[in-house]
Amino acid sequence: YRLIPNRNAGGIVILTVTKEIIYMNCIKFCEFNIDTACVEIKLADGSMVSIDCIAVENKYANNMYEASELDYLIYNEPMTYVRLLLSGNMEEYLRNNTDYTPLSEMR
Question: Is the pTM for the entire model greater than 0.85?
Fold first, then answer.
């Protein structure tokens, strides 16, 4: 189980991460809601899930470059963002797609 705060309902949604959700296209659509800072997902059965993007960024982004990559996904590819998060591949994606050099090494 993975706990994802749902700001709209004021509670917590318990989301069971299953292969059915990830691989069988149970996700009907998803989009970023700028008012709540959540990616909202509508599943094929009509249920809605909100992912708190601030909590995800706090967990996975270790620097501004990784935070920027997460922002890109949220705004431009929310389905990819959701699939990476639910599959547990977010850290690997950020490690492979974010390149930065700390200031201390630039001198």
Answer: no
